[in-house]
Specification:
single chain; 473 residues; alpha+beta; Beta-Lactamase; Alpha-Beta Plaits; seven-stranded antiparallel β-sheet; five-stranded antiparallel β-sheet; 12 helices; rod-shaped
């Protein structure tokens, strides 16, 4: 049989690809049974080549029929170094019909049979022992493989008429080979998708009609649900935390408009931050969406930690003045929108310098932390507090305009009780002042701060006067 020469071996590449292999074996069997040729080798190429060109390719698969046991055993070694195919061998001078007939002694060495037949042919001007006939497998004007035959039963040379049956087999074989290659490629793609989906870092899901039709193992691990539980969830977006569900989530295109970092609900009830990106796709003859879900928990927590570091005082853990400058305007705008009062209350620790002087700055820092926690504990959940500087604290009290004397008294009493329980008897108190915005007020935030600060210093002066007038023991 006669594939051409090349460096390397095709032994390993020859027998892979089940679908293509079955087509080649079927073709070889049909040729052997329905044509006069007793030996046949069918092959497909790595890539298509154009006849008569300088293009080269390699054999990807081969199937042989009609060889004797010894020839079958010798075929792999005979093919070693012979698997390169050149478009140059398909020239008009060797063409018969749609086939190519290579006569012994009249053809390049690279198309001579590697396992020449042992028969002796006696017909005058008939087939010779080292002749070879090649019928291309043609698709779209290119050759994608070939059928190579020799050893005709009648010993006759081929003619266009005698080759019509064999060439018809080759035409059908080319169509079958294209289909098999497509099937094999699809199978390889499915295997690759299955591998990547099962072993990649991302959770994957296919959404169709508000249900998860496919989920990979990574998504199961991320959310804690079983595959069955996820696929039975209806609608699927119940997985998304209610605070992160946009209006119209079920509308087509929401999840594919842009990537989003969302909280999804873990099976244990806790939130899990995932970055979700969607792509439209076709699935089982219907429109669907492929979801790519990446674990963003560590990223969100890191970003939150960095933001906390930027907006919080490192000593007390309370908000800093930078955060106050960002957050007070939205708070003020909300008060104006709803016509609700907003109070800013300033607090200064009386006697704190003496704590630092007598007990040291380390103990002074501990006192600041403890007092900050104490004051925060006296506030409502909607209130927030800022370390405004040194031993000064600013408390923002939304929807608070009345009863501020009671609030101040509660804070002062809390500090006094806390101080009384300390081992050190260094006196410590808190001076408070406040200013309130109401709908009929024209003060700005800066003016409110000035008014609260002025009132705090009035409170400080009043306390000093009381201390000065108190009888000495």
């Amino acid at each position: 049989m006669g594939p051409e020469e090349k460096t390397g071996s095709v032994a390993e590449a020859t027998w892979e690809g089940k679908a293509v292999r079955q087509v080649l074996e079927g073709l070889a069997d049909v040729v052997l049974r329905q044509t006069p040729y007793r030996r046949v080798l069918v092959s497909c190429y790595e890539r298509p080549i154009h006849p008569g060109s300088d293009e080269t390719t390699a054999l990807r698969e081969v199937a042989a029929k009609g060889l004797l046991p010894g020839e079958e055993r010798d075929l792999p070694s005979c093919m070693s170094g012979t698997s390169e195919v050149s478009g140059g061998k398909f020239q008009e001078r060797w063409r018969v019909g749609r086939s190519y007939y290579f006569r012994a002694g009249d053809t390049p060495h690279f198309v001579a049979p590697r396992l020449p037949t042992r028969r002796r042919f006696s017909r005058h001007d008939g087939w010779a022992a080292r002749d070879l006939l090649v019928v291309p497998l043609e698709a779209d004007g290119h050759f994608i493989g070939e059928i190579a035959v020799d050893d005709p039963r009648d010993g006759a040379r081929p003619t266009p008429q005698s080759l019509s049956g064999l060439e018809e087999i080759a035409s059908i074989g080319a169509l079958a080979l294209r289909g098999a290659e497509c099937l094999q490629r699809m199978s390889a793609e499915r295997q690759l998708f299955s591998f990547l989906a099962g072993n990649g870092p991302a959770g994957l899901a296919i959404v169709q009609a508000d249900r998860l039709r496919y989920v990979n193992d990574r998504l199961v691990a991320l959310l804690g649900y079983s595959e069955k539980e996820l696929q039975e969830m209806d609608p699927w977006w119940h997985l998304i935390h209610s605070d992160d569900r946009p209006t119209g989530i079920a509308e087509a295109g929401w999840i594919v408009s842009r990537p989003r970092t969302l909280r999804l609900v873990h099976r244990d009830g806790g939130p899990r931050w995932l970055t979700v990106e969607g792509r439209p796709m076709s699935f089982q003859d219907g429109k669907a969406t492929l979801l790519n879900l990446l674990d963003a928990q560590e990223k969100v927590e890191s970003e939150r930690a960095l933001r906390d570091k930027a907006i919080r005082d490192p000593l007390t853990g309370q908000f800093n003045r930078h955060y106050f400058a960002e957050a007070i305007e939205p708070e003020f705008a909300r008060a104006r929108r709803y016509g609700r009062p907003l109070t800013l209350m300033m607090g200064d620790l009386a006697g704190f310098k003496k704590v630092n002087d007598e007990l040291g700055h380390r103990r002074g820092d501990e006192v600041l932390r403890e007092v900050a926690q104490l004051l925060q504990g006296q506030l409502r959940g909607s209130d927030w507090m800022v370390r405004y500087g040194g031993d000064e604290f600013l408390m923002i009290l939304p929807e608070t305009g009345a009863g501020l004397e009671r609030v101040a008294q509660r804070l002062e009493t809390a500090v006094q009780v806390w101080m009384a329980g300390r081992a050190e008897k260094t006196p410590l108190g808190i001076d408070l002042g406040w200013a309130t915005w109401t709908p009929d007020c024209t003060l700005t935030v800066a003016q409110l701060l000035e008014a609260a600060d002025a009132r705090m210093y009035e409170s400080k002066a009043s306390r000093r006067e009381r201390v000065a007038q108190a009888p000495r023991s």
